[in-house]
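An instance follows:
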Amino acid sequence: MTVYIDPPTWPGHGRMWSHLVSDVSYEELHAFAEGIGCPPRAFERDHYDVPAHRYAAAVAAGAVEVGSKELVRRLTEAGLRVPKHRRTA
């Protein structure tokens, strides 16, 4: 099981955010996110938006720290990337 997180460098809603992804499955990602207290509403297409204050908890729980480009590369290579213009069911 490998879940990846990028640094909290994405601004929004007065906070900084990270992205949490899996390179295995959405099921793995959902289970991990639930385990660190991310609400289902934080899931967007193919990743979870994680506020900066939860970053350390995600890493402590086993998320691997990678840069944003590496995160997207791994997600794409796993076939789990959903482009913004496409919606999931």
Summary: The mean pLDDT is 92. Strands lie at 3-5, 10-12, 15-22, 43-44, 47-51, 64-65. The radius of gyration is 12 Å. Residues 43 and 79 are 17 Å apart (CA to CA).
